[in-house]
Design goal:
This is Transposase. It comes from Sporomusa acidovorans (strain ATCC 49682 / DSM 3132 / Mol). A hairpin with a 2-residue loop joins strand 2 and strand 3. With 121 residues, the chain is an alpha+beta fold. The protein has 4 helices and 3 strands; from the N terminus they run βββαααα. It has a domain of 60 residues. A 3-stranded antiparallel β-sheet has the order 1-2-3.
């Protein structure tokens, strides 16, 4: 939920709005109409900050259960823009946590000693 500011009758109108997706499109649903900004300024010093904090509190208090459906028999769509490669993200995080990049940079800066590793027979 967020505070939406829209213009109605030439004045700024405030309302609480919830964003959601339906049929692959982003939509918004008005949760609560608050009124015109000019009228709200009579009751609140800073109505925008006041109602933004209320929206934030409501988002934190929202404990509604959310679920996701996964069909193991359905094929993935060929549209690759909706896919996420989590395997790379996990490997990148491990790479970062271990400091491998810093190690390789330091290794490149070391002078070459001419020592080679050979097998002993």
């Amino acid at each position: 939920m967020f505070l939406k500011q829209s213009i109605s009758n030439g004045k700024i109108y405030l309302s609480f709005v919830q964003g959601y997706r339906a049929d692959g499109k982003v939509k918004q649903k008005t949760i609560e109409k608050l009124g015109y900004l000019d009228d709200l300024k009579k009751s609140y010093d800073d109505p925008i900050a006041h109602f933004k904090s209320i929206a934030k509190e409501r988002n934190l208090a929202d404990t509604s259960e959310r679920s996701i459906e996964v069909s193991l028999n359905r094929r993935l769509e060929s549209n690759t823009s909706t896919r996420k490669n989590l395997g790379y993200a996990i490997a990148k995080r491990i790479y970062s946590l271990l400091g491998i990049n810093k190690f390789l940079i330091l290794l490149r800066k070391l002078p070459c000693t001419g020592v080679s590793v050979t097998e002993k027979k």
